[in-house]
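Internal QA ticket QA-208
Title: Verify multi-chain structure generation after dependency bump
Assignee: T.L.

Test input:
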Amino acid sequence: MIGKSASPGFAYGKIVILEDVFEKVVSKTSTDIDHELSEFERISKIVVSELEELSKNATTEDQTAIFEAHSMLAADPSFKKDIVKLINEKSLVLSCAVKETALSFMAKFEALDDDYFKERALDIKDVASRFLTKALNINSSSLRQLDNDVVLIAKDITPSQTAQIDKDKVRAFITEVGGITSHTAIIARTLEIPAIVGARGILESAANASVVAIDGLKAEIFLDPSNDLLEKWDRHIEDDTKYKEMLFKYIDAESVTEDGHQLSVLANISSVEDTEAVLKNGGEGIGLLRTEFLFMEHKTAPSEESQFEFYKKIALAMGDRPVTIRTLDIGGDKEVDYLGLDPEDNPFLGYRAIRICLDREDLFKPQLRAILRASDYGNLKIMFPMIATHNEIIKAKEILETCKKELHAENISFDPDIKIGIMIEIPAAAVMSDVLAEEVDFFSIGTNDLIQYTIAVDRMNDKLSNLYSYFDPSVIRLINMTIEGANKAGIPVGMCGSMASELQLTELLIGLGLDSFSVTSGSILSVRKNIIIANKDECHKLVPSVLAAKDKEEVLKIFSF
Amino acid sequence: MINENITVTKEHGLHARPAAEFVKLATTFESEITLTYNEEEVDGKSIMGIMSLGITNGETCNLKIDGPDKDAAFKSISTFLSA
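Actual output:
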């Protein structure tokens, strides 16, 4: 079985399935209303005191706030009144009354025209789930009394569930739904626990299994694995631990090559919480802050205000360290109802990213204004994705200028010299890099799309996986061209695609003249180590033979010794 | 019973934290406190009720207070809403 990689690493353990207790409620009437009411009183007291206890024992401010809010919800008079009413008037059993009341409040919150309120629906679900596990007497969410070495499997994991997870007992997470920016994925990376999301059908297949092993990076799942596999996993886990310990000595080191060239290792992130892992791993800044999920997680476009708060929090968390924010990169392949995008035959060649933004100033301007406003709180840069032509940069810059003028007129402070860069991920941009470089302050090479567009290969297509390769000389030539174009204009070039964390290629990328590597926080130290032991002059000598290679097999041969 | 219309002039309206503060304040009084907005009437001591109204800055709602300490309650709640 396979899903999407949310957090790398090898792990195995006993399966614990976290169920959605709402689905366990059976519609029923009661014959003993007094019993339902007294049960409700009894359970209410337990739930409220449990939540107060959790809030007292919480280790972070966020957790304390979550549990405080939850204990207020659990003791809420309207919530209680409605439950009691349903029991009295419709003779419902307690669990049904709790579920119906929660659903009706959730619907009210979801209908409000404000992101913050909408999200509170999840909090109500969380609190109601606590009542339900007690009312139905199931112990599925007894997250606090887990055995050692377990792997949690769930449809999705709620914020309050993740806040209770004991890092020393949970070896991995697997969820049926969610993408790499889902709450579960972010928490897993913060806690550095291997995790796979979007594993369709895992709940059904895991129901009859007792042990599961996963490879978080390849997103592979093995139910009831053989002893041979477990032994192999033990070796991987031991190697990973030793490797991590060894890498730790590079935590405060500068990313300078043996012969004195200063480079930098930055991180790719999607959330405020991700910054914690970046700093813990010695990241020198953020090379790519993805903003798509701000737009994908809600039923309406996020307001300028909520985006501002988000960018500001990240700016503050990173302090002086640079943070490059990529403007909205979304297209017809993602479901964002409020954008009203038509399905396309070729979404990757279609209406997406900067192409939408230049057309829809109602989306683009609030984002640019929010980034500008947040630039007053840290070292922010703006990066436009999917640039194919010179004219797109000119237009994007014009809109940015308009936003600056507006803010100036409104007396709102921002960094007037904020740096602007573009992603080089379309071959056209790589070919025209010397021209494009005149217009911007930096380039960042997005290798996933660059490879896909250069070789015309869908990396998700299993039949074509052999074609998709970092080692293809066509791709390396385009990277070389991009860096040469940037050098002419004297601007720096970074790389934020997954090729930057391919350790076999660090030397070549240094030789080609790359200035910064932006990788997942777990890869920061291994890339830095490679930089520190490299000699740029020696690395440069690799370049001619690689550029002259006929195919990727020949390139691979150069790196095989 | 006190029955007055009040315009909320808090920067973030009755959002999460202000809503919680409102409820905490309301529960310090013995009187019954009812808030009506968009024809929806809720218990002023209920966080779910208050939040489900979604009142933002500049909106007007109706406040009803009845009970032994209604005057004191009205005074501190109206000050809170227009702070």
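Spot checks passed. The interface with chain B takes residues 69, 72-73, 76-79, 81, 105, 108-109, 112-114, 116-117, 120, 124 of chain A (CB under 8 Å).
Status: verified.
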